[in-house]
Amino acid sequence: MKKHNFSAGPCILPAEVFQQASEAVLDFNNSGLSILEISHRSKDFVAVIEEARNLALELLQLDNNKYTALFLHGGASMQFLMTPHNLLEKKAAYLNTGTWASKAIKEAKLFGEVIEVASSEDKNFNYIPKNFEIPTGIDYFHCTSNNTIYGTQLKSFPKSNAPLVCDMSSDIFSRDIDYSQFDLIYAGAQKNIGPAGTTLVIINKAILGKVSRKIPSILDYKSHIEKESMFNTPSVFAIYTSLLNLRWLKKQGGVSALAKINKHKAELLYAELDRNPLFTPYANKEDRSLMNITFNLANPELSHTFDALWQQAGINALNGHRSLGGYRASIYNALTVESVQLLTEVMQELENKA
Ligand SMILES: *Cc1c(COP(=O)(O)O)cnc(C)c1O
């Protein structure tokens, strides 16, 4: 039976990416060797990581003289501490829009003063705070573009003289924004880039080298840049599979082509949630995420019936994050319009039954 995977991460990737990745496990580039057994310093893999780093910048329309792209270990969670370690001399400002932002704030406090410019915790992070002020004299401003757990998304980004740092784990490559307004972007691969096990970090090199503390080499962005993202053994297979996905993205017409489809998918689902009286969307309307769509049943007693219906339809992983409950449909790049359509049909079926 065909599966429709709405998992929040690790998540769906295009079928052809799974196919090509599986072929490389058996025989990579007709070498007679598996991608899993070759040296990361081999000519074939050096070509992979170079292409992946360049293609990431190209797809985001970033100048590769100004920016550099790295594939690092440790997930987005490692970036919660690597960014302050490398950038925070005295104080930094953070926007608190949820669990991941809170975790980033907690780590930054180990390195200096953190000013929380605004928080949506008062309403359990169902909205994005607006009209906050970014103080002057900060080393950088940090925000989370898309709040995977709550289903909210920043539609625009504040301007300030300080470098702009963004955790884009769950919406990078999904929408048409000016990526050059950011100075540092990081994203765990497992939500729109590739499999778990690598993290994309994009840095405007000009912001580095300004803190006085000593940074252990493996935590220093400069060591990774100098070694062309091969300071230590990179996640060979995860990076190769990410490259396959980035190539797929380019073939579809790039980020703007996917952004149109993603918008259409989200509109379909929100329209059904707004129409169908059995469901209540979680996020504040103007802050709704186009990637993670959170909702509840108006009558929780219907959950057994609803759960049975979507599971029978082949839908996977529709439950909300364990900290929030309810439901969450993650509709990343590789999820098709048909899968979203199917979910809306299941919602209508529930309405007809109830
Ligand atoms: C999933 C997620 C993280 C955590 O990523 P890891 O790679 O597991 O460390 C951080 N931020 C956001 C926005 C996420 O969605």
From TrEMBL:
<feature type="binding site">
    <location>
        <position position="100"/>
    </location>
    <ligand>
        <name>pyridoxal 5'-phosphate</name>
    </ligand>
</feature>
<keyword id="KW-0808">Transferase</keyword>
<comment type="similarity">
    <text>Belongs to the class-V pyridoxal-phosphate-dependent aminotransferase family. SerC subfamily.</text>
</comment>
<dbReference type="InterPro" id="IPR015421">
    <property type="entry name" value="PyrdxlP-dep_Trfase_major"/>
</dbReference>
<comment type="pathway">
    <text>Amino-acid biosynthesis; L-serine biosynthesis; L-serine from 3-phospho-D-glycerate: step 2/3.</text>
</comment>
<feature type="binding site">
    <location>
        <position position="41"/>
    </location>
    <ligand>
        <name>L-glutamate</name>
    </ligand>
</feature>
<keyword id="KW-0028">Amino-acid biosynthesis</keyword>
<comment type="pathway">
    <text>Cofactor biosynthesis; pyridoxine 5'-phosphate biosynthesis; pyridoxine 5'-phosphate from D-erythrose 4-phosphate: step 3/5.</text>
</comment>
<dbReference type="InterPro" id="IPR022278">
    <property type="entry name" value="Pser_aminoTfrase"/>
</dbReference>
<comment type="subunit">
    <text>Homodimer.</text>
</comment>
<keyword id="KW-0032">Aminotransferase</keyword>
<feature type="binding site">
    <location>
        <begin position="232"/>
        <end position="233"/>
    </location>
    <ligand>
        <name>pyridoxal 5'-phosphate</name>
    </ligand>
</feature>
<feature type="binding site">
    <location>
        <position position="167"/>
    </location>
    <ligand>
        <name>pyridoxal 5'-phosphate</name>
    </ligand>
</feature>
<dbReference type="GO" id="GO:0006564">
    <property type="term" value="P:L-serine biosynthetic process"/>
</dbReference>
<keyword id="KW-0663">Pyridoxal phosphate</keyword>
<feature type="binding site">
    <location>
        <position position="148"/>
    </location>
    <ligand>
        <name>pyridoxal 5'-phosphate</name>
    </ligand>
</feature>
<dbReference type="GO" id="GO:0008615">
    <property type="term" value="P:pyridoxine biosynthetic process"/>
</dbReference>
<dbReference type="Pfam" id="PF00266">
    <property type="entry name" value="Aminotran_5"/>
</dbReference>
<protein>
    <recommendedName>
        <fullName>Phosphoserine aminotransferase</fullName>
        <ecNumber>2.6.1.52</ecNumber>
    </recommendedName>
</protein>
<dbReference type="GO" id="GO:0004648">
    <property type="term" value="F:O-phospho-L-serine:2-oxoglutarate aminotransferase activity"/>
</dbReference>
<dbReference type="GO" id="GO:0005737">
    <property type="term" value="C:cytoplasm"/>
</dbReference>
<feature type="binding site">
    <location>
        <begin position="76"/>
        <end position="77"/>
    </location>
    <ligand>
        <name>pyridoxal 5'-phosphate</name>
    </ligand>
</feature>
<keyword id="KW-0664">Pyridoxine biosynthesis</keyword>
<dbReference type="GO" id="GO:0030170">
    <property type="term" value="F:pyridoxal phosphate binding"/>
</dbReference>
<keyword id="KW-0718">Serine biosynthesis</keyword>
<dbReference type="InterPro" id="IPR015422">
    <property type="entry name" value="PyrdxlP-dep_Trfase_small"/>
</dbReference>
<feature type="modified residue" description="N6-(pyridoxal phosphate)lysine">
    <location>
        <position position="191"/>
    </location>
</feature>
<keyword id="KW-0963">Cytoplasm</keyword>
<dbReference type="InterPro" id="IPR015424">
    <property type="entry name" value="PyrdxlP-dep_Trfase"/>
</dbReference>
<dbReference type="InterPro" id="IPR020578">
    <property type="entry name" value="Aminotrans_V_PyrdxlP_BS"/>
</dbReference>
<dbReference type="InterPro" id="IPR000192">
    <property type="entry name" value="Aminotrans_V_dom"/>
</dbReference>
<comment type="function">
    <text>Catalyzes the reversible conversion of 3-phosphohydroxypyruvate to phosphoserine and of 3-hydroxy-2-oxo-4-phosphonooxybutanoate to phosphohydroxythreonine.</text>
</comment>
<feature type="domain" description="Aminotransferase class V">
    <location>
        <begin position="5"/>
        <end position="343"/>
    </location>
</feature>
<feature type="binding site">
    <location>
        <position position="190"/>
    </location>
    <ligand>
        <name>pyridoxal 5'-phosphate</name>
    </ligand>
</feature>
